[in-house]
Each structure stands twice: as structure tokens, then as C-alpha cells.
Amino acid sequence: MSNATYVLAAGSNGWLNVTVAFVGGLIIAGALIWAVQFGMRVRDRESPRPRPDEQPHLPDTGAVYETREMREPDEMPVTTGRERLTPHEIHHTGSRTGADQSRKRWLPGSSGSFGSGGLGRR
Description:
The protein is mainly alpha-helical. 34% of the residues lie in helices and 5% in strands. It is built from two helices and two strands, in the order ααββ. A two-stranded antiparallel ribbon has the order 1-2. The longest helix has 32 residues, at 14-45. The protein starts with a helix and ends in a 25-residue tail after the last strand. The relative contact order is 0.07. The model has no long low-confidence stretch (mean pLDDT 79).
């Protein structure tokens, strides 16, 4: 900015600054009122909220609980003399249900967590 700009800004009247701030506040307040009215019109055009009898409810059999199962990796099929596998030859998941469903238990004398130290099994 040049010196002339500073001189003009310093010499302006206080009522001009107040008027500009008041007009700016009116513009902002008007924009907020318009935005609220616009949002209310958009909400009125939306489909109504579901009634209490239309809300989701538990199945007749009761709550559905999660199941636990031991998973093991499903290896990629080996190509025998061919260049590549086609999509129908690849399974849809990367793992499958394991043959052994017994949970792995902690054995006394083994290390605690994943590489937490200790002597491990002997």
C-alpha cells in the first residue's frame, strides 16, 4: 500500500466505518435468514420421516448374534502350464473356514504375547 492509502484510511470519519460495518452486518444477517428459509423449503419437499410402525424391529427369532470361527488362508490355485488364472477360477474371499475350530489356548511356559520376550517354548 502507498502512503496515500494510509493517510486516507487514518483521516476517514468514524461514522463512515460504523455505517460500513452496519451495512455489512445487515447483508450477512439477510444471507443467513435466506439460507434458513431455503433449507426449510427443501426439507418440506423431502419425503416424510417413517412412522414408528415403519421403523426397523428385531426378527421374530430374536436378536442375531455374531459367530466365531477360526479362519485360514485360501491359497491361490496353482497354474499348471497356463499363463494366468481367469476370474472364475479365483475364490471370492481370501480366507476360508478352518478345519480345526478349536481355540488356541495359552500354554504355561510359552511366551506371553506376540514377541513380547521371554524364553518361549522349550
